[in-house]
Known about the structure:
Elements: E1 8-10, E2 26-32, H1 40-51, E3 53-60, H2 62-65, E4 75-78, E5 81-85, E6 90-96, E7 102-109, H3 115-128, E8 133-142, E9 152-156, H4 178-188, E10 193-201, H5 210-224, H6 231-249, H7 252-271, H8 288-301
Parallel strand pairs: 2-7, 2-8, 8-10
Antiparallel strand pairs: 1-3, 3-6, 4-5, 6-7, 9-10
Amino acid sequence: xxxxxxxxxxxxxxxxxxxxxxxxxxxxxxxxxxxxxxxxxxxxxxxxxxxxxxxxxxxxxxxxxxxxxxxxxxxxxxxxxxxxxxxxxxxxxxxxxxxxxxxxxxxxxxxxxxxxxxxxxxxxxxxxxxxxxxxxxxxxxxxxxxxxxxxxxxxxxxxxxxxxxxxxxxxxxxxxxxxxxxxxxxxxxxxxxxxxxxxxxxxxxxxxxxxxxxxxxxxxxxxxxxxxxxxxxxxxxxxxxxxxxxxxxxxxxxxxxxxxxxxxxxxxxxxxxxxxxxxxxxxxxxxxxxxxxxxxxxxxxxxxxxxxxxx
Length: 311
């Protein structure tokens, strides 16, 4: 089927992926690795596969695509023997939204190797399944407060795809990643492509951040017209925000830092012009590392409380 079919295997039988109107499916690519602050990408894939009907249809050969030395898989040890191995996966699922409309979900680890072969395989698969559009997901840590609405930056091969969304202003270079490459190559092969990069508070980027998951799922639903459940995510995001806010209230140092961040964030949102940063001029924001270190110290002082995001 694809020029690089040695990188994957199809899981038969592959279901009919056309909608009732005959439209091909949307492809959502959500690869974890380079850009997954707040575990947002992982959260989206777990939510979609866990709350909707999904079927595994493509299994990529992670052994050819992942550098285990850079991201070592976990091996579980139990008393006197090794008891399990968390094998890396890169998969494509056929998922049905709440109305029964099928779409494709590419998830798992971002490949370290064979980027060209991988992206060509995904594009060929998308073409063979009649994909009408691709949507990529990213999550980056930024100097934004958790007490403000979660924002994301939109990007697309055609600006008309993201009318009503907010694009990141200016021109700059960023480290390459497979999600961005897929978005670029999809457009070159005639498949409309878009993507969303959600902004995660830097001081919370190392823990699961439900508000970022909610934002990305909402963006997918809006641009694709898919019916995606979000009630559980809304509750989780509200509970997490309340928990963090309560903990911060007991730490004057963190509270002051967040209040300063809120002030500068609000000033930026009011101006919204002539800037390519969420840190406008004026007093510099405390760094995410500084706030994060203080936050960790505060949580360590709490007895019987593992902090937000604990499992």
